[in-house]
UniProtKB/TrEMBL annotation:
Protein name as it appears in the record: Nucleoside phosphorylase domain-containing protein
Transmembrane segments: none
Organism for this UniProt entry: Fusarium torreyae
Domain Nucleoside phosphorylase: 170-254
GO biological process terms, semicolon-separated: nucleoside metabolic process
Family matches, as InterPro entries: NLR-like, Nucleoside_phosphorylase_d, Nucleoside_phosphorylase_sf
A Pfam family assignment: PNP_UDP_1
Entry superkingdom: Eukaryota
GO MF annotations, alphabetized: catalytic activity
Length: 275
């Protein structure tokens, strides 16, 4: 399921089929914006920033006097989830996250699953924005393929010049709170990524393709594990680990959501009906 329109359709069926649902967490993977200190294996959580409610639909707008102006607005995350996020962030600042503990638990209980989702052996390589990916030779019929097929053929960066990587000091994973840019177009170019970030004020942490189709129809917070840098070196190496990291954060967050806050929340179906 890719794209805002597809997500909106699924959500419409979801809240109609389960009318008692009040809110949710949108958990998945996305591309990180390295200029804002986001790295592979980090977690990005949508929270309001300035004029933006945590998620911005970056490709929605109109051309006016030769300039592209974004139009429309998205809803803020539910107050109950923002309160839980604030409490969890405070806890992280005091004693750190429980995500490493959850990963150890995963390894003990489901070792086969853990072997596929661990970051062991994975390299976090950030190439300079001016350096494009070196494509592996692909034998085939020459027929056009979709983007997902291209990603599979693209594979790792084994042919890319490692001298063109950005030198960074290794660190543990971090959780970032702020702006997620969502659109129907796939970003696989560092120049486009950096321009998008600049156009939105320089605070974009993550770029993905589903969240904007969900926010106005389903009260939620978006949680993304970072699996690539939305550049030409985009591949699937980090996807499974990023998905597990995002799910681990969601598990930790749910411990801070208060049932009494949920009881005061209107069903998500009401939001859909009002729209």
């Amino acid at each position: 399921m890719v794209g805002n329109i597809s997500v909106a359709t699924v959500v419409s069926f979801l809240v109609t089929t389960f009318p008692s649902i009040k809110l949710g967490l949108m958990v998945g993977i996305g591309g990180g914006v390295p200029s804002n200190k986001v790295r592979l294996g980090d977690v990005v959580v949508s929270t309001p920033v300035g004029q933006f409610p945590g998620v911005v639909k970056w490709d929605s707008g109109k051309v006016h006097e030769e300039r592209f102006e974004r139009t429309g607005s998205l809803n803020n995350p539910p107050h109950s989830l923002l309160t839980a996020l604030s409490q969890l962030e405070t806890q992280h600042n005091l004693v750190g996250t429980k995500i490493p503990d959850y990963l150890q638990e995963l390894e003990k209980k489901w070792p086969r699953l853990a072997s596929k989702s661990t970051h062991a052996g994975l390299q976090d390589m950030l190439f300079k924005a001016s350096y494009s990916h070196i494509q592996k030779p692909v034998s085939g019929t020459g027929e056009d393929t979709d983007d997902e097929g291209d990603d599979e053929k693209q594979g790792s960066c084994s042919l890319c010049d490692k001298a063109m990587t950005v030198k960074r000091t290794p660190r543990d994973m971090l959780v970032h709170y702020g702006l997620i840019a969502s659109g129907d177009k796939l970003i696989k170019d560092a120049t486009s990524r950096n321009k998008l970030n600049k156009d939105l004020g320089g605070g974009v942490l993550c770029i993905e393709m589903e969240a904007a189709g969900l926010i106005n129809q389903f009260p939620c917070v978006v949680i993304r594990g970072i699996c690539d840098y939305a550049d030409s070196h985009k591949n699937k190496d980090w996807q499974e680990h990023a998905a597990v990291i995002a799910a681990a954060f969601a598990k930790e967050l749910l411990q801070y959501v208060q049932p009494s806050d949920i009881e005061r929340q209107h069903p998500a179906k009401d939001t859909l009906d009002d729209g």
